[in-house]
Amino acid sequence: MFKCRGTELDLNKRTHIMGILNLTPDSFYDTAKYTEIDLALSHTEKMVKEGADIIDIGGESTRPGSDSVSLEEELNRVIPTIQEIRKRFDVTLSIDTTKSTVAEEAAKEGVSIINDISGLKFDNRIAEIAVEYEMGIVLMHTTSRPKDMQLKTHYKSLVQDVIDSLRFSVEKVQDIGVADNSIVIDPGFGFGKTPEQNLILLKNLKKLSQLGKPILIGTSNKSFIGQILNRKINERMEGTAATIAIGIMNGASIVRVHNAGQMRQVSRMVDAVLSVN
């Protein structure tokens, strides 16, 4: 069970879908689509109807080369939308942030999960917020901040380096007091990795299971899919589906996706295969 506030998600029973709600004007995929609350609510409703178990809300783009935004700007983007979603939908919410103040304000509004792309490398207080509100936490691997992470793609041993970094993050949040069953790990596809390195991680994803934590993957529409298939941003559905299927076969319990309905079908099919003897 993945415990996040009053909710327990049985990640062993089936793959869970985390639908992406970008509230940024410079997202790599949803550019300017959902910056208005009405549009964000409409998209949230669509994802919930399509079977999203979690809605991951972000107010700061993490695409390669992107700049950070001020605390005030990020709060202004996410908090009003969180408030409106909470009024209308009974769905588990996640806040995609590396700022503890944003995480805390989101927690006050009922958000259950903190999705920290830094793996607690940018702001230790995020773990303290998770402890205080009994939230779940996703710890992702990255080499640096989005602005320059693609300049830092050298590894001594890619898979082992990612595992070691995630182990450090897990131990760090555990020391601060986050419950063992409230931690999920994410290898960080596209974050400080070349296209080939992303493929190596996907192929070897099962090795992350040695950390004893559920695995989340976020491959949806990423640039490495576009580069391999020579497809534009809105032409990567099939490539994304392939990575989702491979990821679940190799141990992923949560998939973070833009197209919740289609990837829900993919996950159900793979779950069916995995469930037979």
Structural class: alpha/beta
Number of helices: 9
Q: Largest sheet, order of strands side by side?
A: 8-7-6-5-4-3-10-9
Rg for CA atoms: 17 Å
Low-pLDDT windows of residues: none
Instruction: Categorize the overall geometry.
Output: globular
N-end to C-end Cα span: 23 Å
Question: Describe it for me?
Answer:
- The protein is α/β, with parallel strands linked by helices and 277 residues long.
- It is built from nine helices and ten strands.
- It has an eight-stranded parallel sheet with strand order 8-7-6-5-4-3-10-9. The protein has a two-stranded antiparallel ribbon with strand order 1-2.
- Strand 6, helix 4 and strand 7 (136-140) form a beta-alpha-beta unit.
- Helix 1 packs across helix 2, helix 3 runs parallel beside helix 4 (125-133) and helix 8 (237-249) packs parallel to helix 9 (260-275).
- The model has no long low-confidence stretch (mean pLDDT 93).
Features:
277 residues, alpha/beta, two-stranded antiparallel sheet, 10 strands
SSE layout and pairings?
Layout: E1 2-4, E2 7-9, E3 16-22, H1 37-49, E4 54-58, H2 71-88, E5 92-96, H3 100-108, E6 113-116, H4 125-133, E7 136-140, H5 158-176, E8 183-186, H6 195-203, E9 215-217, H7 223-229, H8 237-249, E10 252-257, H9 260-275
Parallel strand pairs: 3-4, 3-10, 4-5, 5-6, 6-7, 7-8, 9-10
Antiparallel strand pairs: 1-2
Helix pairs in contact: 1-2, 2-3, 3-4, 8-9
